[in-house]
Amino acid sequence: MSASPDLDVYRAIDRIGSVGAVRLDRLKRKYRPLPDYGFFGPGSVTWKVWSYPTSAIMGFQRAVTIEFLDPNLNAAVVASGGVKSRPRNRYERTMRYFALVAVGDTAAATKAADILVKVHSLGIGVDPVTGGRYDSNSPKSQLWIHMTAWHSILYCYEVFGPGQLSAAEEAEYWEQCAVAAQCQTIDPDEVPRTRDAVIEYFEAWKPRLAASQTAQSMARMILHTEVALPPNQPAWATPVLQPVARLAAMATISTYPQYMRQLFGIRQSAAEDAVVRPAVRALMTAINSNMHLYDAVWSWLVPGVADLVMPAALGLPATNPITMTPRAAQQLYGYDIPAQAHPQLRRKQEQRVFGEHTAPSYEGLEESEEFFGNMRGVPQ
Question: Is residue 17 part of a domain?
Answer without folding.
Answer: no
